[in-house]
Design goal:
Blueprint (H helix, E strand, L loop, with lengths): L10 H11 L8 H14 L3 E4 L2 H11 L7 E4 L6 H7 L4 E4 L11 H7 L4 E7 L8 H11 L2 E5 L7 E2 L2 E2 L6 E5 L12 E4 L3 H11 L3 E2 L16 E2 L10 H11 L2 H19 L5 E2 L7 E2 L5 E5 L4 H10 L15 H4 L9 H9 E4 L7 H16 L1
Length: about 375
């Protein structure tokens, strides 16, 4: 089965991990700090690493101070964690519809649902294409709401010359194997705000405080630390951080290959009827994580089944979050975000990963053409 996404591991990655296994530090050591510096160089903002993209979101909502009585505006066109991480803090999730062109959070839809209880607005850079953060910030600032960017798809992307880590108040990343780079499991939170980043860093470290300037009893001894608020152990170990630094050293190559494959899909599929291709807005330089086409005329299920039967592992990204029973049981109903639901009904992610060959891509295109044209 040709997968829709897959990691790219080379000898340098293996050697980085082996070297760490032979060192004195398997976790909370120097490779964590190095990986965070490497992320900052790409994201444009200081970062703290965490165990995965979901815990990155959980730490970001903790940093934003989300809690019971707060509302968090979220896109429905995402993996459930973008919403559920806020729900775990007792916040009310408010879903706002997406743009038809990009499947990103629609600023006009956000403006229609925000209230004086809005604590955070969480956008997703769907498929690697950054959301309209400048417009979203204009909505968030008067409300003193925290703007969160779920950039799980988008490390390496830029928006009008700015890297994704600088666009929101807090930005989260995922390093799952199908993402733009991998640490096996892993993630990060980045922020241009030292205060917000420190909150996220403390939360992911079980709430432990060691900074003498923040301690209530700073003279107890060198072993002393304090817990001022609850946190969880979301620390990413040195072994995985070593893999991440090695992967980041090749991020420009990964981006070039993904852009090449995207342009090739654009060309090969341009004349196929019943198919709508993804767009790229002016000023956006995306690290394309997914290649999401839209299958028209109600044929998405047929195309999905036939491609999978042919050994091509297409995927659907994503089920509208409020369709899941966990939200349905809270009273959320289908029909709330019609643009997102229409997008879901048509979306199909074609294989896209760094080691995808031209022959593999030709096979995908030919199978898709055969199904749609006959």
């Amino acid at each position: 089965m040709l997968p829709y996404g897959r990691q790219s591991i080379d000898r340098s990655d293996v050697e980085a991990v082996i070297a760490t296994l032979g060192s004195d530090w398997l976790t909370t050591g120097p490779r964590v700090a190095q990986f965070e510096k490497d992320i900052e160089a790409v994201a444009g903002a200081p970062a703290t690493t965490v165990t995965n993209g979901t815990t990155a979101l959980h730490a970001a909502y903790a940093a934003a101070g989300v809690g019971p009585g707060d509302e968090v505006v979220v896109t429905p066109m995402t993996f459930v964690a973008t919403a559920s991480s806020a729900s775990l803090f007792g916040a009310t999730v408010v879903f706002a519809d997406v743009e038809d062109e990009t499947a990103n959070l629609d600023p006009a839809a956000v403006e229609a649902v925000v209230t004086d209880r809005t604590r955070a607005i969480a956008a997703v850079d769907y498929a690697g294409h950054p959301a309209e953060y400048d417009a979203l910030r204009k909505i968030a600032e008067p409300l003193e709401a925290v703007l969160i960017g779920d950039a799980a798809h988008a490390i390496g992307s830029t928006y009008h010359g700015r890297p994704v880590g600088t666009l929101a108040d807090l930005t989260t990343f995922s390093f799952f194997p199908t993402k733009n780079l991998t640490t096996a499991e892993g993630g990060a939170v980045a922020s241009t705000s030292p205060e917000l980043l420190e909150r996220a860093r403390t939360f992911k470290n079980i709430g432990m405080v060691r900074d003498p300037a923040r301690l209530r009893r700073p003279d107890e001894g060198g072993w002393w630390y304090e817990v001022h608020g609850y946190g969880l152990n979301y620390r990413l170990p040195d072994v995985l951080c070593a893999l991440g630094s090695s992967q980041l050293s090749r991020l420009a190559q990964f981006k070039a290959k993904r852009q090449y494959l995207t342009a090739r899909y654009d060309e090969l599929l341009a004349d196929v009827p019943g198919l709508r291709l993804p767009i790229q807005r002016e000023g956006v330089d995306p690290m394309r994580h997914l290649y999401p086409v839209r299958i028209l005329d109600g044929r998405r299920r047929e195309v999905y089944d036939r491609l999978r039967a042919a050994g091509i592992g297409v995927q659907v990204n994503y089920i509208p979050v409020y369709w899941h029973p966990v939200y349905e049981d809270l009273g959320y109903r289908r029909g709330m975000c019609p643009v997102a639901e229409r997008f879901y009904a048509e979306e199909l992610s074609l294989p896209l990963f760094v080691d995808l060959t031209d022959d593999d891509q030709d096979r995908v295109v030919e199978e898709l053409r055969t199904i749609l044209i006959g």
